[in-house]
Amino acid sequence: MGQKERSQRSESAGYRNPMSTHQTDLFKQNRASPNQQLNHAESSSENAVFPLSILAHNIEIAGNVGSLFRVADAFGIEKLYLTGTTQTPPKYKIRKAARSADNHIPYIYEESATAVIENLKENGYTIIALEITARSENIREFKLKNKEKTCLIIGSENLGISAELLTLSDHHVHIPMYGKNSSMNVITSCAIAVHELIQHL
Q1: Tens digit of pLDDT at every position of the chain (201 positions)
Q2: In order of start, what are the domains of the chain with their CATH numbers?
Q3: DSSP structure class, residue 131
Q4: Which residues of 145-176 are buried (b: 16+ CB within 10 A; e: fewer)?
């Protein structure tokens, strides 16, 4: 429906625009300001999907799982694998944190993380564990091949990634820290790691 047709229909229905033409023009000018925050309708995204999945093992806080769905949506994640004691939809706290991203991000639940990793490896995926270890690489220096199928493992809020899953991983990566703590929230870390990894995909 064109603007003219909408205006005619509004007038025929007895609707009168409460803003004058001058007020409407000022409103449009304000919305076009380079310093004006854009709303969802005005902003745009590339809608890209990268060959990168995330395996979340033993993430027991529902809000963290919801935030993970939101990160997956923001960065074009291919699929989420929820394993072990990781909380799964539908749950109110997941939905609240996910902001509906749990409706369209593909995910599966599998109790055994080992089984998921072995299956991914059989299908040509490179497995990367996000953990500080004796052999972990600075993620800012870590490189992937273009379009390389990859799965990033994140682990428990308290215990991190188990030795078993670290052994199954092809690479370990860590985020350089500059403060007094040696770690941060698991989903915050995941978001930083994903942003770094997709630069190479």
Answers
A1: 544 444 444 444 444 445 555 554 555 555 557 778 777 666 666 788 999 999 999 999 999 999 999 999 999 999 999 999 999 999 999 999 999 898 899 999 999 999 999 999 999 999 999 999 999 999 999 999 888 999 999 999 999 999 999 999 999 999 999 998 878 999 999 999 999 999 988
A2: 52-198 (3.40.1280.10)
A3: S
A4: eeeebbbbbbbbeeebbbeebbebbebbbbbe
